[in-house]
Here is the input.
Amino acid sequence: MTAQRESLRAILEPQSVAIVGASDDFSKINGRPLKYLLEFKYGGRILPINPKYGEIAGLRCYPNLEAIDCDIDLAIVAVPAKAVSDVLESCAKRGVKSAVVFSSGFAEMGEEGKAAQERIGVLARESGLLVCGPNSLGIANLTSGMTASFSQTLERKPASGPIGFITQSGAFGTFLFGMALESGLTFKYFISSGNEADLEFADYVDYVLDDPEVRVIAGYVEGLKNGGKLKEVARKAASLGKPIVLIKVGRSSAGTRAARSHTGSMTGTDAVYSAAFEELGIVRADTEEQLLDYASAFLSSARLPQGRGVGIVTQSGGAGVLAADRAEMVGLVVPELQDETKKQLLGVVPRFGATGNPVDVTAQFIAEPALLRDSIALVDRDPQVNGIVFCLGLMDLHWSRVAAELTELSKTVTNPLYVSWTAAPSEALEALRSAGIPVFPTPTRTIDALAAATSFNMRREAASQRVFPAAGPAVLPEVVRQLIHGARAQGRDHLLEWEAKQVLAAFGVPVPRGQLVGSSAEALQTAEALGYPVVVKAQAIGLLHKSDARVIELNVANAQQLRLAHARVLARAREHGSPEAIRGILVEEMVNGGLEVITGVSYDPSFGPVLLVGLGGIFTEILRDVALHLCPLEVSEAAQLLQKLRGYQLLTGARGTTKRDLASLYEALAAVSRMAAALEGVAAEIDVNPLLVLPEGQGVKAVDALITLRSR
Ligand code: COA
Here is the structure.
């Protein structure tokens, strides 16, 4: 057990809890923890502290921490913000192991509050005191009754359960806690991480994952300070087979940073979270209902689906179509059933029903229970089916017989059986839930839950094996080191295209043959050596958008055109900046016949380098058809990433288009991602736009590149 984990025990399983600012008014924020600790029969020592009282609820109340003579594992801090720092300092001096700070009035309150919060972080790191919060609604361990929280959900006396719940929003988190209870879900841990001056979201996940009573982690996230920790805990969760289901808020584009490169402007923070969660095997819930539905699906006895095929059996044609539409929308497949399955279904389903997929058994199944049993058994046997969804509704008169039937069926099917029971009698839902059957109130929610279980299972293995290199700059090839050093020595924040291409080449990304020249005579010599046609481009500091400045000429076919092009490009470059900024003219081979792909890298403050790829032109500019991946990525991951693009088939030679050199493209993307990882801390953004993908067997070429550097 790590030191960190051992000490987290002090905050989540303390043997003694002091309450600084305890009150005898149990309705107040600072009064509730004591009330709950007593009501939940917490077995450790409870130590109220407030100079106003001699005792509260029959417990001795101490004037201050110093007056207590036993060890204190956890101190609840429920005093006004201005008094927090003194209390925490006393905690540190007194050897208190951990503290949970309820008080608001820190980073959420402007600069002064932010500074006070930073001081809490420093105190925690220097003294070893573990701090949850400030601005936390508290933490509760419902198995031990350790309720260091003022969550009003505790008024409802929740039982302990198999979910570890961690929330960055205290108030909304406690609403979700209440909502979970209403839908029959129980938490072992409720943890409101508050402003995270010290302990952060992933620290709690790490601890809770090791608890054998916890089978699912659920949470609400606004933003993570340290994506690296999340990467680690997600890998641990995947190898333990414990799903992490998170709501991550903040999808709006407001977070998109002002960026100079295409990549930067398209890699919004939220898109990075989506990509990261997917790779890490974390299930993202879009709504509150999804969060709870997915948790409940994972907690049911249903096996995890082994593939994307869903067989839909329904009482209502309408529900079936809705389910099928939704399935395709969320990445499941509704396969045509095999002829043999259909043939056998014809012998079972009434003539007014349907034997395709969805299979419509009609309301006749109520009168003939065998109809439901046989249809589901047949669909279950179809080799393309990996999960079954049965849709029904109401059944006030027959619910108990139907529930019993479904319970029996769930024991005999090979694939997971999910039930969509709309407007169900509450007893029916309870009966299915207690039989371990995943049941939801609408076809849409049922399909979404099945899709979540499917994608978790399909990503789990890869996520458990994903290893990320340690963050920070790697040993760079000498040529790269010199180019960066040279640019910085000149006070530049970017590499010239010519330099950027040398960096790309050093990491194995193919670039066009070419040479940086000065005079027209040198240009001629280079062009002769390369062979016409060539491309002529000015290389000048600060001149990043060469086409707009018209300092690039393509398809230069002979010596005469070259002289003119050289002169024109040079003249235009001079119009755009001082002559000293011009570093030369790049003469390159002209690459023809390539399909434009844009790729690049931005550095996310939480997750580090993120690779973006898309097809060029309207696909990225208008349709935003791009896919993201954390760096570095393997060749096989590059292949999967490209398949996410809507325009992917343009690369594969579909409908008479040219088949492109996909193998070289995968290699190039993997090389860009390795370069990105190596340049972490050095580069700010990387743009390879376009990367031309030539016909199969002819490779790829990065014909333009921009690398901007981080300010130091
Ligand atoms: N040691 C011991 N007791 C102390 C103390 C100290 N150093 N300083 C103050 N107290 C006592 C007070 O005597 C008072 O006792 P009482 O309630 O019996 O009168 C108690 O601590 C609280 O002080 P008070 O001045 O009443 O504080 P408050 O009304 O500001 O309440 C908080 C304290 C923490 C609840 C409040 O400041 C706050 O932050 N509320 C918002 C909490 C919140 O929403 N958190 C985020 C959730 S998402």
Observations:
- The chain has 25 helices and 30 strands.
- The domain at 300-465 is CATH 3.40.50.261 (Rossmann fold).
- Residues 20-21, 23, 28-30, 49-50, 52, 78-80, 83, 87, 102-104, 135, 137, 170-171 surround coenzyme A (CB under 6 Å).
